[in-house]
Amino acid sequence: MVDLTLLGSLLLAILGVFLFFRNGFLKKIEESDGDTAAATVVDQRECRSREGGDDIIIVGAGVAGAALAYTLGKDGRRVRVIERDLTEPDRIVGELLQPGGYLKLIELELQDCVDEIDAQRVFGYALFKDGKATWLSYPLEKFHSDVSGRSFHNGRFIQRMREKAASLPNVTLEQGTVTSLLEEKGAITGVQYRTKSGEEMKAYAPLTVVCDGCFSNLRRSLCTPKVDVPSCFVGLVLEKCDLPFANHGHVILADPSPILFYPISSTEIRCLVDVPGEKVPSISNGDLAKYLKTVIAPQVPPELHGAFLSAIVRGNMRTMPNRSMPAAPHPTPGALLMGDAFNMRHPLTGGGMTVALSDIVVLRNLLRPLRDLNDAPTLCKYLESFYTLRKVVGSIITISSLYLHDSFLIWNLSVSHLQPVASTINTLAGALYKVFSASPDQARNEMRQACFDYLSLGGVFSSGPVSLLSGLNPRPLSLVCHFFAVAIYGVGRLLLPFPSPKQMWIGARLISSASAIIFPIIKAEGVRQMFFPATVPAYYRAPPAK
């Protein structure tokens, strides 16, 4: 009886502390944010603006814009999409969708957009270094057999999503170039754009979402862009050849930086050669072809060597700067940034589309309870939570009711599960590119070798990092643990069986180098948002009461 009394007292004490925290600290946060109230989710088809015009304008109909248009249109919003060019895009990136991204497609009911475009299923990666190879499979055992990565022609995928968005009667897809955002009393009220025929037009809506890509000309008024260009991709298409590991992406840890191979159709393999720096050798005078033949070709696996040289001879080489830009938004009433206009990471890990689709799920869930979007300042304050929630992993538990029944204290819990992947994929992309690139620093090269050997161990040593890469494990703490496990493994390789002063010095520099790689990336992403989101006031904001 004493034990039961003590147990009951302990439970009541814990509950009391929880209620004090919830009703005290959170109340102060809510009071500082303004009067808010829990809103009941309304029927998806009842979302309408008061004026009877468009509810939302979306600038850009790429992966993010088209997917967002369909998602919000399906929820009953009247959406106008303005895209500069509605013809099929021809790009050399945005061609590999990770399994985590495919799960987001399913959640958004867009999974059929990878059908009928000759998309190829991808089940993992093959990693090559100094003639050795290791095979890394996605941990898909717990998922439906249809779940895997997908690789395809980017333009075909985008066209499928545009068609699906345009099939909704409340979504208007229009070709035009948005030249500026319209502002009134500090709030964005719409856009000014030029139609395909050259006519200047204006469109108005309570909310404008800018998704105009990595070369966005509108982002400067909505964020502080700190764009870094660590390298460029040179893209080629290989034909009449087979990958050493079928249905896998291939990463060659070459000198000076990685080379990627992956299928984009049943007959074509994309090759992306990473060239460090903001410029590539000249194509016109033959310098680029010479560089690929003399420096890169000897490092290509034998199975692909002939097709690689043939692709160079055909001359259809494309280049693309690899941009990295942490999200640094200026919360602006009436406007929101998404996609590459908002946040970019090195495309080595193929995580861009997964992040964009994950962000769309977060934004959809935030907007669903709202009937009216016309109160721009209140909506802006509420949507500030988007910038935190897109980086949060875990569950929010709230007590929805508390009462006595037959002398027992009863409480009902409401649990909201959060699985966004933005911070984890952004951090992994930046860190992995630096680790996979060759360096004159011996400590960095030891880290590179340690990473290859660590992944080659198999088991949790490969499935753990690959689950992060694939978007299946969005937890940033897991990423940090594996990253420093690689560094410690590298130090162990140096010190065993008998350490020397030189090896000990290199080991210390290896740990220092690992810290110098990952900590600045985490700082740019936001330490509080990644690891302590509960300390960010926007995390607790409820939908406006109206």
TrEMBL record:
| Name of the top EC class for this enzyme | oxidoreductase
The protein's organism comes out as Salvia splendens
Q: What does this protein do?
A: Component of the triterpene saponins (e.g. ginsenosides or panaxosides) and phytosterols biosynthetic pathways. Catalyzes the first oxygenation step in sterol biosynthesis and is suggested to be one of the rate-limiting enzymes in this pathway.
Any GO molecular function: squalene monooxygenase activity
Query: Which family, according to UniProt?
Result: Belongs to the squalene monooxygenase family.
Membrane protein topology class: Multi-pass membrane protein
Major localization listed first in the record, in broad terms: membrane
- State the GO CC annotations: endoplasmic reticulum; membrane
PANTHER family hit by this protein: SQUALENE EPOXIDASE 2, MITOCHONDRIAL, SQUALENE MONOOXYGENASE
Record InterPro entries: FAD/NAD-bd_sf (IPR036188), Squalene_epoxidase (IPR013698), Squalene_monox (IPR040125)
Biological process (GO) annotations held by this record are: response to hormone; sterol biosynthetic process; terpene biosynthetic process
Q: Which UniProt keywords apply?
A: FAD, Flavoprotein, Membrane, Oxidoreductase, Transmembrane, Transmembrane helix
Q: In which pathway does it act?
A: Terpene metabolism; lanosterol biosynthesis; lanosterol from farnesyl diphosphate: step 2/3
Q: Which Pfam families match?
A: NAD_binding_8 (PF13450), SE (PF08491)
Note the superkingdom of the native organism.
Answer: Eukaryota
Compartments (UniProt record): Membrane
Give all residue intervals belonging to the Squalene epoxidase domain.
205-409, 420-504
**EC assignment:** 1.14.14.17
Cofactor(s) recorded in Swiss-Prot or TrEMBL: FAD
- The entry's protein name is Squalene monooxygenase
Q: Which reaction(s) does the protein catalyse, per the Swiss-Prot or TrEMBL entry?
A: squalene + reduced [NADPH--hemoprotein reductase] + O2 = (S)-2,3-epoxysqualene + oxidized [NADPH--hemoprotein reductase] + H2O + H(+)
